[in-house]
């Protein structure tokens, strides 16, 4: 069982664990093909808390996939739907649809999932993809050809709201304009990053500008349903391409562009770095070197009043970059944080970000006592809430001490990661659990890279071998047979170790490039890794989606 699932099992069993943690764990079990393990986790937990409809539904859902246990599983699912509305009906409908002939209950599938569609605003957008897939199967059985075809057009197996393609880039969710306070908005789903808008008495202040002028203009068109006032200012939270590439769409109105004093240095660092992973930027923006000189630089905390609205601009060292700039609107109690809480502590392909910078930035934000945080990405806004900050900060401080001690004791990076550390303080802060788990491994890797050299005393890094060399050595062990790589890859996948299996299969394909069994296994492993990372690691999600050539339509 992989570390993420092991950690989720521990926190999902804590008293007071939130529903989202348990749903994410269920998704991880499913993506890894660990149905029996999922049943063996949720069944005893449900028995301890028999009044929890979600736990009963999850136990039934996993049991329904085990040979010869459908009848008992359906009884659990039926009991769960009698206890609560919503998620139990979702899991019963999906589970019945996966059984042969919908277990003779196609009408129940339709009733459950048409109800879910009626209340879909209560579910994450991506949850509707498997709903449509299940409905298509049930409609077919009932002879409802038209509805079945329409459902198939919207169907999918992923439950994330993520969508995108190589041409347009990656998006975290559907296009929408969210109002966080009167006159304070974020356009989500128009780009990898979100675009903030503050409507003042004189005009609109934009916070960041997406990755391309086209995406920024599309976000602005959404705001035009609210106001026709011109964009007078653009405040940039940092110099990453997905936040500044579309400035031209706003500068056309003569807007004043404001950034932190270290903006030029961060922009130069990014321009000199490697191409981005996956397809988080649109294809026409991947190779672009940005050239942007702000009109005004902020070196110290300052306050602006624009159209009767007070803006406090606060430079921060940041958890992601050293040119971070947060924007506090004291009136409505909103803080635009940019990417200070990005769980990778900087882009994973660049040498930037720091733990101490993150801690200082979090303390600065907490001292403002805001009502609402608006991050630079939808998923961060939804999960890294101000309520999560106290517990998250305490947990990460403890993790920093653990990593420092591990380095001093001579532990390798992998050994520190394998500690799978979960601070006890998280038991008192359920809102901080998922942000911590999303951040933890990236935090450890960033600290370890910044505090160690490229040689380890046990020999790691002393010698480097190309993939082709490793493939040749593995081929010797496997007797020169592609089947040996395939058999080992299948066994690793059965154990829930899809990432390790993919690495092995890729080595096998270097030695046996024409082996169809390895190519087919590779595709199945990529599909599984896309699903495993859909809720916890968007950069890995994009990486594996790009390797698989996967294109996702917006969730409906």
From TrEMBL:
GO terms classed as biological process: antibiotic catabolic process
Alphabetized Gene3D superfamilies for the sequence: Ribonuclease Z/Hydroxyacylglutathione hydrolase-like (3.60.15.10)
Stored SUPFAM superfamilies: Metallo-hydrolase/oxidoreductase
Gene Ontology terms, MF aspect: beta-lactamase activity; zinc ion binding
Pfam families: Lactamase_B (PF00753)
Protein name: Metallo-beta-lactamase domain-containing protein
Provenance organism: Planobispora siamensis
Keywords: Hydrolase, Metal-binding, Zinc
Highest taxon in the source lineage: Bacteria
Names of the cofactor(s): Zn(2+)
Annotated Metallo-beta-lactamase domain residues: 192-377
């Amino acid at each position: 069982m992989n570390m993420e699932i092991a950690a989720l099992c521990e926190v999902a069993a804590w008293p007071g664990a939130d529903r989202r943690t348990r749903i994410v764990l269920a998704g991880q079990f499913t993506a890894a093909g660990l149905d029996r393990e999922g049943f063996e986790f949720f069944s005893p937990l449900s028995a301890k808390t028999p009044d929890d409809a979600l736990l009963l539904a999850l136990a039934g859902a996993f049991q329904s996939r085990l040979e010869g246990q459908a009848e008992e599983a359906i009884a659990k699912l039926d009991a769960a739907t009698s206890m609560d509305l919503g998620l139990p009906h979702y899991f019963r409908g999906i589970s019945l649809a996966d059984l042969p002939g919908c277990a003779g209950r196609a009408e129940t599938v339709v009733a459950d999932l048409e109800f879910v569609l009626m209340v879909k605003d209560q579910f994450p957008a991506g949850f509707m993809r498997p709903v449509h897939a299940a409905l298509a199967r049930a409609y077919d059985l009932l002879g409802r050809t038209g509805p079945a075809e329409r459902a198939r057009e919207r169907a999918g197996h992923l439950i994330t709201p993520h969508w995108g393609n190589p041409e347009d880039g990656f998006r975290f969710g559907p296009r929408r304009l969210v109002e966080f306070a009167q006159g304070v908005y974020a356009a989500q789903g128009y780009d990898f990053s979100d675009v903030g808008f503050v409507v003042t008495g004189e005009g609109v202040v934009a916070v960041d500008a997406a990755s391309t002028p086209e995406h920024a203009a599309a976000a602005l068109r959404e705001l035009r349903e609210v106001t026709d006032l011109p964009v007078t200012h653009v405040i940039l939270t940092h110099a990453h391409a997905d936040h500044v590439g579309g400035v031209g769409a706003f500068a056309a109105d003569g807007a004043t562009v404001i950034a932190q004093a270290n903006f030029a240095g961060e922009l130069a660092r990014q321009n000199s770095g490697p191409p981005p992973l996956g397809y988080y930027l649109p294809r026409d923006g991947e190779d672009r070197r940005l050239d942007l000189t702000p009109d005004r630089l902020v070196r110290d905390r300052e306050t602006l009043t624009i159209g009767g609205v007070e803006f406090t601009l606060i430079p921060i060292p940041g958890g992601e970059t050293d040119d971070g700039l947060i924007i506090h609107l004291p009136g409505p109690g909103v803080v635009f944080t940019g990417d200070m809480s990005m769980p990778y502590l900087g882009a994973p392909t660049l040498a930037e970000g720091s733990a101490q910078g993150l801690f200082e930035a979090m303390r600065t934000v907490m001292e403002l006592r805001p009502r609402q945080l608006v991050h630079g990405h939808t998923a961060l806004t939804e999960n890294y809430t101000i309520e999560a900050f106290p517990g998250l900060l305490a947990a990460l401080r403890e993790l920093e001490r653990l990593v420092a001690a591990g380095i001093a004791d001579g532990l390798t990076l992998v050994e520190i990661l394998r500690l799978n550390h979960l601070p006890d303080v998280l038991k008192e802060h359920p809102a901080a659990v998922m942000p911590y788990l999303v951040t933890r491994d990236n935090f450890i890797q960033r600290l370890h890279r910044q505090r160690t050299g490229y040689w380890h005393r046990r020999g790691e890094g002393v010698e480097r071998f190309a993939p082709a060399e490793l493939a040749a050595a593995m081929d010797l062990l496997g007797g020169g047979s592609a089947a040996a790589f395939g058999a080992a890859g299948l066994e690793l996948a059965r154990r829930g170790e899809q990432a390790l299996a993919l690495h092995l299969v890729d080595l096998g394909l270097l030695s046996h490039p024409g082996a169809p069994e390895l190519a087919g296994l590779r595709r199945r492993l990529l599909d599984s890794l896309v699903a495993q990372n859909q809720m916890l690691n968007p950069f890995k999600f994009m990486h594996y989606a790009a390797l698989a050539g996967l294109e996702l339509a917006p969730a409906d």
